[in-house]
Amino acid sequence: MCDLCAVCYNDPALQHLESTLQQSIHNLSRKSRTAKLWFKYIRYVNVLKLFITAEKKGNWQLHLKCVYDMLNIFAATGHNNYAKGGRLYLQLMIALPDSHPWLYEMFVRHGYHVIRRFDRYWAGLSSDLVIDQTLMKSVKSRGGLTRGRGMHDCVRSVWVSTMHECANMHLAMSSMTGTCSGSEGHVEVRAARGHKDCKDLQKIVDYLQ
Known about the structure:
- By secondary structure, this protein is mainly α.
- The chain has 10 helices and 2 strands; from the N terminus they run H-H-H-H-H-H-H-E-E-H-H-H.
- The chain starts with a helix and ends with a helix.
């Protein structure tokens, strides 16, 4: 926790506000089962928001806390494999300072448990997302395995062995010709997706009204 966050957290006015808010939530939950259900839903959404924040910022301690908070959600929703795997993962990561202190140092100080494709503060990505955005995109795009080459063992071996060299050549040619197609913007924040999101949001607002 940074110094500013510590000061805000220990501020008496904010603590009083937090206590009042929690008491109101408790009273409303006792009076209405619907309110209790919505408060639980909001709490689960907040856990997901904190997890995304931990991944984007590379905050290792917040990452572990969110995984801990997700264990009950996994069990309640029937994702037993996630619940068992998450508990084992959490136990191993808590023991990381003793088992692999150098790796723990990299995670805590530098946020190396996430991958950054760009040198920005809010640019951390989980490893599974990077695999989906890079490796799977290469497999399914032009020149990939699914475009007529087949999935035989020899084809896969040649493709994996030469993929990094082809990527370097493609980057060098794109930089030289000024046609680099890389973009710092994610596909989800492009104009077409934003327009569709606005239309979907307006449908929800109209329905509620």
